[in-house]
Specification:
three-stranded antiparallel sheet, two-stranded antiparallel ribbon, 29% strand
Length: 89
Amino acid sequence: MRPLARDAERLLYEDTAVPGVRTRSWCLMCGAYSPEEVNGDSVRTWCLEHNRVTAHGSYRLAETRYLVVEKREAPGGCRCGGMEGARQD
């Protein structure tokens, strides 16, 4: 898998345990929220159903992509400043 971003010590990947974009909606009037879904249409349908039941008319929709960071070991071993391999007297 190709990293989404990188720096000298870390790589950023999409979390394969939770792939894709997850969508959730909140009612801004009462705080109720939809289940987190892969399908954005079902979240928008939740807003319409919530409005039908409550007459609330203001919602927030958020799309979330879950990510993980993987540390890269520097060439020639760890340069993290830790005590790995240090002599214990």
